[in-house]
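Students often ask why we bother encoding 3D structure as a string. The short answer is that it lets us treat folding as translation between two languages. Here is a chain of 713 residues written in the first language.
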Amino acid sequence: MRRFALARILTAVACATPGCGSRTASVPEAEPVLATPAERARAVTSSVDDARLRGAASEPASWLSHGRDPAETRYSPLARIDEHNVGQLGLAWWLDTETTRGLEATPLVVDGVIYTTGSWSVVFAVDASTGKLLWKHDPEVPREWGGKVCCDVVNRGVAVYRGRVYVGTLDGRLQALDAGTGQVVWSVVTVDQTRPYSITGAPRVVKGKLIIGNGGAEFGVRGYVSAYDAETGALVWRFYTVPGDPAKPFESPELEKAVATWKGSQWWKVGGGGTVWDSMAYDPELDLLYVGTGNGSPWSRHVRSPGGGDNLFLSSILALEPDDGTLVWYYQTTPGDTWDYTSTQHMILADLVIDGRPRQVLMQAPKNGFFYVIDRTNGELISAKPYVQVTWAKEVDAKTGRPVVAPGADYREKTVEIRPSTLGGHNWHPMSFNPKTGLVYIPAQEIPIFHAMDREWKYRPGAWNTGTDFTVVAAFPRELVSGHLLAWDPVAQKEVWRAQYPGPWNGGTLTSAGNLVFQGTARGSFAAYRATDGKLLWEAPAGTGIVAAPVTYELDGVQYVAVMAGWGGAFALVGGDAAAAAGVKNNAGRLLVFKLGGEAELPGFEATAVPVAPIAEAADAKLVARGSDVFHRWCAVCHGFAAVGGGVIADLRRSDPKVYAILPDVVLGGAYRGRGMPSFEKWLGVDDVAALRAYLVSRRNELVREAAPAGGS
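And here it is in the second language, the structure alphabet:
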């Protein structure tokens, strides 16, 4: 057994109360009795207390929290793997998660044990040196909950604290698991499960409290962030991000002031949005917790808040007191957001010298396309510049801190093309900051979208409620979308280098003292670049697209790099032809771990092309057109624009003909509810399904014609 891990075990076993004992311990000369895997896993995590989490940056061998340290830098001081020897990297081992949906988790590594999550909020504990599965916990999320999630049945990871592993489940529970066995210690429901709430983000531990948010704004919910006692699961505080029914008492003075920035009487009936579904960071010195808030519900402010208004605290960065959730300051990146420009993207805390003056900053590249550098002590804007092409705004005014909206961004009267799209110039995929190079490494992307008002919109509880017309987005033409790894100078606010990719939705980044940046790609590879100039130094096949962020750790003098590989998420579902271009043929989810000289190999896979036969029937043009509207309003967000599957959920053009025959049972009767396909009988009728079938058959026959050889039959 490893001596370092053993020292942790002996320290933990000697202490019966949480948090007691020193972080260092002498190892006795006599060979001790080896612990069981369960005892070892529980013991090594029992010493992860508040002090150890605050000092996580000084523990390069481990990866103790979501962003490695409270500042969420995703920078590792490890340098055994560096720019000179990274070409010798090879696969050390891999673990099959037995999933085919998206994998977005950042693994945690605690003294030789990896804790990570897969699809449907399943938790894995794995030996970090061998890949042996120690335990697996399935929270048994009802599969129909997949119909209440905008962007795949994903989970971004766990938190570890005092012998327990904490996970938020897709159906809104927060669970504490015994780190040794995976058994549930306590479980609390954090949402109103009669509403379409979900949890996909990783919890954070701050001062003995679990901080967790939720998602669901696309469907219609009210956002909030909560703190639960890590020991008991009791709710400590909750901060609502948008005001509720103004006829009722406000939950905080901040909301009483915020309600003046909302107009009309619709928002609180739908929910208002502002969900805290991903990004957080913590500054122990300032004792401030930073959280990012999401888009409005509905998306369109013209529907949500007729008459205008900033709609606080949508699309904002909030600084909260972690003891009671009191708001200290806020900065709104997109006032009155009407384009789904969330501020839930990764935030990084750093100390920079700007204009000759040391500044404590918070950095974020949210969906709206501007890179923000903000004084994290008071929320003052230091600078904001576009990091991708931006057409919705001319600039961010340096004096007011507000964007100057471009006239062409208003889509009330006509359909307009907007950049970035609702998928953002940067989405949830974590970026990283290297203090040696001074650069931030962003998974950036260029995707346009068309916006138009939904003239037929009315609130439909449990359905998508955006107030925008999806029928105008027939496809994301692959020639118009791209992605790149962007090295950004946050002081000069300019690009330093980029690694260009053919498509978007590439993985999160990790940077290290070895002058390296690691990133997985949508096309199914894992790569390492030189951090200073972007030269590609190494690349290996991953077997499927990677969207998650990698981590690195060290055991017995060996440095490892680990990443979850599993194609999925919003773009993989909705991206249609552009997502299909990623070329994912076998979406087998795995945890991949690399080391210098690794010689393991992934199993081979040969894609077998299943011929698609046409369905001979006359196509009624009007019925097909109506079916296209039905599909893009109700189905495209999961099955892809233009009915082109992106490699996660089955391509409906290629369905067995029997599926078309039972389409009413599937769409209206809920025959596939157990697979995550909800019933739409509340909103659609038999005539709608008939039109939908006509459209799918039409698209199927088009596929057959396109695949036929020239001059063939």
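Translate back mentally: The first helix runs from residue 3 to 14. Keep this in mind for the problem set.
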